[in-house]
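hey so i finally got around to running the thing on that chain from the lab meeting. sorry it took forever, my laptop kept dying and i had to restart like 3 times. anyway pasting the input first so we r on the same page abt which one it is
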Amino acid sequence: TYRNRARALLPDGPSYVGFAPGAGDPTKVWPLENFLELARRQRAGGRTPVFILGPGEAALRDRIRDAIPDGIFPPTVGDDPDQPSGPALVIALGGRMAAAVTNDSGAGHMLALSQIPLVSLYSKADPQKYVLKVPRLVIIDSKDHGGKDPALIPLEIVARALENLLDDAVEPSGE
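ok and heres what got predicted. didnt touch it at all, straight out
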């Protein structure tokens, strides 16, 4: 059911790149403008940005949609009670993506379960303590750039890591 819903939301054809710009703890959030710039670059490269947002991030969705109107915004929990949603849908959607960039967040852990190439941004937590089990994972930690503020993570380092993962990506199977 969830895989079928993911196929309907992200049909075969485009190359999808996921972005999970939120987090339950706002002090773990990389600046939204950086995610938007990455999405613009992916769109310019012919890929389709997909934004994974939590149920409490409606305002974030509006800001992103204003900046990236052709981005895809899969439903969150409760958007449509007659359709599958929630963590299992996020995992299924991840299986349709070529790669993703996430904050240290629940959405990042869900996308990791789909085993896609992943750039995971850490700030407060120790990434080794919460390491994701992903075959192709790039961890970028703000502490390597001067402190625990995620804004210290340079956009260009994240962009390069994402491009490297995409250059080596195998087309997702969606399974």
